[in-house]
Amino acid sequence: MINGIITKGIGGFYYVVTEQGDVVECRGRGKLRKMKIKPLVGDRVNITVVGSQGAVEEILPRKNSLIRPTVANIDRIAVVIAAAMPSPDFFVMDKLIAFAEHRGIEVVVCVNKTDLASPDQVVNVYEKAGYRVIPVCAVDNKGLEPLGEIISHGVTAFAGNSGVGKSSILNALGFSLETGSVSKTEHGRHTTRHVELMPFGESGFVIDTPGFSLIDMTELRASEISDCFKEFRDLEPCEYSDCMHIGAKGCNVIRAVEEGRIAPSRYESYKVIYNELKDIKEWQRTDDITN
Ligand SMILES: Nc1nc2c(ncn2[C@@H]2O[C@H](COP(=O)(O)OP(=O)(O)OP(=O)(O)O)[C@@H](O)[C@H]2O)c(=O)[nH]1
Ligand SMILES: [Mg+2]
Ligand SMILES: [Zn+2]
Fold first, then answer.
1. Given its phi and psi angles, is residue 73 left (phi above 0), alpha (psi -120 to 50 degrees) or beta?
2. CATH level 3 topology of 220-284
3. pTM score, two decimals?
């Protein structure tokens, strides 16, 4: 059997890139359907090949899987924000980052459109939180080298609001993806639609996700969110062990915000997500998909 990775799925066919770098068009075996296992883009698989036609025989255990887009085995999320046009949406950023933290997926922050405004504010907020932040300019091809280095290993999904320039950044790195005008995307039309793993660099793959996706926060419990804020985790425990960091005495998160060690926007996002989730009942929560 040959080991490979599913890079796209169209009309019942799966396109598998093998370890040797060949692309094989595969069908899924009936036994997978019987076991109700649907191969996903990103799946590591074992295939057999007869002539030019392959068959997916086995799906190796998934390290994670996401619903929107439906993709498995993400190593890293490149969270993209624009310095301007659209103006930075810190809440969406923080939601995406919290989601990634919850799934144990590495995060790299990318600030695009540095030709339009200074990236400093965004850089400060996320460096303070402990993330690697890379300012880039897709139109002028600036700052892309460190990003290219990071994504040349593992599977990286690009995520962020529509119009921030995810596809443009990938184009600046050598792809030819469709990009949209901000005015078009403002009406809620996403330029990027299908999911595909695109080979990049030595052993990397990238995924261009459409608009703001990837996340369904209802898989999180309110009590789990503070652990999804990296800089909260590093603080000394609060006075009360069940402190939710929303006004209790002896709260070290609130103290850190007051002392400027945590960015106010990060704390605001935390509170909004907490309030959104605190009333969700167990039965309303979505479960992690496993197939
Ligand atoms: N000024 C400036 N404009 C940019 C830059 N990068 C992208 N744009 C423009 O921003 C618009 C949106 O870019 P896209 O790459 O389509 O954005 P996207 O994030 O892929 O959007 P969706 O696919 O809808 O999620 C396009 O008009 C790009 O030309 C940049 O660095 N500077
Ligand atoms: Mg796009
Ligand atoms: Zn607290």
1. left
2. Ribonucleotide Reductase Protein R1; domain 1 (1.10.40)
3. 0.91
